[in-house]
């Protein structure tokens, strides 16, 4: 059977032709719009593109430069910037901070963005925009920036505080926590400020200060081993003048609460400091070269001697110590320790293997010094012996006095003997002698007697 042939009617042909013409018209219209839009935006910045945070879409290069200058640079130089660092406000003078800026480089990048794309892609950018951001190039006054950051540094920096320990009324040791320190990371803060300004921040910059955390050199954990009193000493100062008592109190307070870590050396002069009127010390008799003389800080040798006696009973190593020229009345022979600023010091080393706490206080005209460390150290006991092996008799000095009747005598100064003393320390553990050591060999000079003899006729 022969197939039937289909032929387009005249009406169908007309409709088809009209459709093709319509499609061609639409395409021509679209491409004309693409061409027209691209032509309009050829020298304009595409929508959504920002320089220094300001949208320059639809602006020419010249317009962009003027907008950035008027809306950003001028207010920045006129008003400056508030920088909020850790909640505190700081004012930056941008006219001093910024030594040079280049708006044109950033605007040029904005103008050129997308211009090398195809016509269709350019058209898409015009329709939908971009989110590109460009910064302004700056040169900063590093000296001014450093000065500004140094102000912030003073507010931020905090030295760590070592853990402390104190003795409670029941002779229990209470440890007080250490406090971490902080140091501003200067370089990071400077970079944050620069980046913020370059990106177009206006009015306020909020920054969390970049800090470097610093640990205390003595932590609370380090002091947990201090749990017992290992030695003590006391001396009476009831014979003292008010000025001498004042000096004793200052020196006692200066050494109270000191913590000496294992291996550290204690210096009395370092902790008590220079004895001056400005620091509160007063004039009182000082035993110097075998004689009492007025001096600022008289009396503090009683504190150093009381401490030395406690130190001997703890078993610690003596580094530096010197006896007085004459025997002091408040402590046994060979058990004293004289000190003089810049000249004579009392030093000892903590060789106990544990931290040491010094407790020093005054009560009822007595100096009390207690040393605290680890209770395991109480397994050892120390016997201190001060052996006076020679007494040195004074001589008598006679001075002729023409104002006294012949044969009459007057005692100007009574003599007192001198001594040679050897101090030893025996160390015992479990009732056995571990070591016997000579601690010191001291000589106290005698004080000669002075008599005036009359020769008047």
3D shape: elongated
Instruction: Note the quaternary state here.
Output: single chain
* Helix content class: 25-40%
How would you sum up the major sheet?
4 strands, antiparallel
Brief digest:
With 457 residues, this protein is α+β, with helices and mostly antiparallel strands.
Structure description:
This protein has 457 residues and is an alpha+beta fold. It folds into 2 domains: 18-85 and 95-140, no CATH class; 225-456, no CATH class. It contains 10 helices and 27 strands. The strands form 10 sheets. It has a 4-stranded antiparallel sheet, with helices on one face. Strands 2-1-6 form a 3-stranded mixed sheet. β20 (356-363) and β21 form a beta hairpin. It is elongated, with a radius of gyration of 45 Å. It starts with 9 loop residues before the first helix and ends with a strand. The relative contact order is 0.09.
Could you list some keywords that capture this structure?
457 residues; alpha+beta; 4-stranded antiparallel β-sheet; 3-stranded mixed β-sheet; 10 helices; elongated
């Amino acid at each position: 059977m022969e197939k039937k042939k289909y032929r387009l009617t005249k009406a169908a042909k007309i409709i088809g032709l009209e459709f093709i013409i319509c499609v061609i018209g639409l395409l021509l219209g679209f491409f004309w719009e693409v061409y027209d839009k691209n032509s309009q935006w050829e020298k304009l910045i595409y929508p959504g593109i920002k320089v220094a945070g300001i949208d320059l879409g639809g602006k020419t290069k010249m317009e962009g430069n003027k907008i950035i200058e008027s809306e950003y640079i001028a207010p920045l130089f006129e008003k400056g910037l508030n920088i909020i660092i850790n909640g505190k406000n700081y004012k930056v003078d941008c006219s001093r901070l910024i030594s040079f800026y280049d708006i044109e480089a950033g605007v040029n990048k904005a103008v050129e963005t997308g211009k090398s794309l195809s016509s269709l892609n350019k058209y898409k950018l015009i329709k939908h925009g971009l989110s590109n951001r460009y910064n302004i190039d700056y040169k900063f006054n590093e000296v001014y920036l450093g000065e500004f950051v140094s102000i912030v540094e003073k507010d931020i920096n905090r030295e760590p505080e070592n853990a402390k320990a104190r003795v409670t009324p029941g002779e229990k040791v209470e440890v007080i926590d250490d406090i971490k320190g902080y140091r501003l990371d200067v370089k990071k803060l400077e970079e944050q400020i620069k980046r913020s300004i370059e990106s177009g921040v206006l009015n306020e910059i909020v920054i969390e200060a970049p800090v470097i955390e610093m640990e205390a050199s003595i932590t609370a954990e380090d002091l947990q081993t201090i749990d017992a009193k290992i030695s003590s000493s006391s001396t009476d100062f009831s014979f003292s003048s008010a000025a001498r008592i004042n000096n004793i109190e200052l020196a006692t307070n200066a050494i109270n609460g000191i913590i000496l870590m294992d291996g550290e050396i204690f210096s009395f002069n370092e902790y008590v400091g220079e004895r001056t009127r400005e620091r509160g010390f007063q004039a009182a008799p000082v035993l110097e070269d075998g004689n009492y003389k007025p001096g600022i800080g008289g009396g503090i040798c009683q504190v150093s001697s009381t401490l030395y006696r406690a130190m001997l009973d703890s078993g610690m190593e003596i580094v530096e110590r010197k006896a007085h020229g004459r025997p002091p009345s408040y402590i046994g022979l060979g058990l004293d320790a004289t000190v003089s600023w810049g000249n004579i010091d009392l030093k000892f080393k903590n060789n106990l293997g544990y931290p040491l706490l010094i407790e020093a206080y005054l009560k009822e005209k007595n100096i009390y010094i207690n040393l605290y460390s680890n209770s395991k150290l109480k397994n050892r006991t120390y016997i201190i012996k001060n052996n006076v092996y020679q007494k040195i008799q004074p001589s008598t000095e006679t001075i002729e006095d023409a104002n006294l009747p012949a044969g009459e005598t007057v005692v100007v100064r009574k003599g007192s003997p001198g001594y040679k003393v050897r101090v030893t320390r025996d160390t015992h553990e479990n009732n056995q002698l571990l070591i016997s050591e000579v601690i010191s060999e001291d000589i106290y000079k005698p004080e000669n007697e002075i008599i005036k003899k009359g020769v008047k006729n």
